[in-house]
Each structure stands twice: as C-alpha cells, then as structure tokens.
Design brief:
77 residues; mainly alpha; 64% helix
Length: 77
C-alpha cells in the first residue's frame, strides 16, 4: 500500500535507500537524493526538494505525537 509520499519497496531498493529512512516520506527522499548527487551536495541546490521532505517529516512527527497523546489519554481513563 503506497501513498503519494510513500514509495514501494521495489522503488526504495532500486534507489538504495537504507532501511532506517524508509518511512512515510520515502517517495520524497528519492528525488532529493538524486538531486543531491547531481548537484554534488551543494547546500543551496535542491532547496525545494529538501523543504518538501522536511515538511513531510515534520507533519509525520506531529501526526505520531497526536496519536500518542490520544493513547495516553485513553490509558488514563
């Protein structure tokens, strides 16, 4: 099951993405890494791709923290 921000296992394997980076934002990491390699990791290049990836990471973190707080409230009741 893949979404717009999650790549399939075959895509991740082809892009040689380490297991630790295969998360909800993995589909955004593939073009970011391609851009980084093409631009020789220059920090001012690939800003749009990096911003999209970091925003996805932040939103995923916030989603998980909201879910955790809901579970804690349910456990207290």
């Amino acid at each position: 099951m893949t979404s717009s921000t999650t790549a399939s296992q075959a895509e991740l394997k082809a892009a040689k993405i380490p297991l630790g980076w295969r998360d909800q934002c993995s589909a955004l990491l593939i073009p970011l890494n391609v851009c980084r390699k093409e631009k020789m990791y220059l920090p001012w290049e690939c800003e749009n791709e990096r911003h999209a990836y970091e925003k996805c990471q932040y939103e995923d973190y916030m989603r998980r923290m909201k879910e955790l707080s809901k579970r804690k409230l349910e456990a207290q009741e």
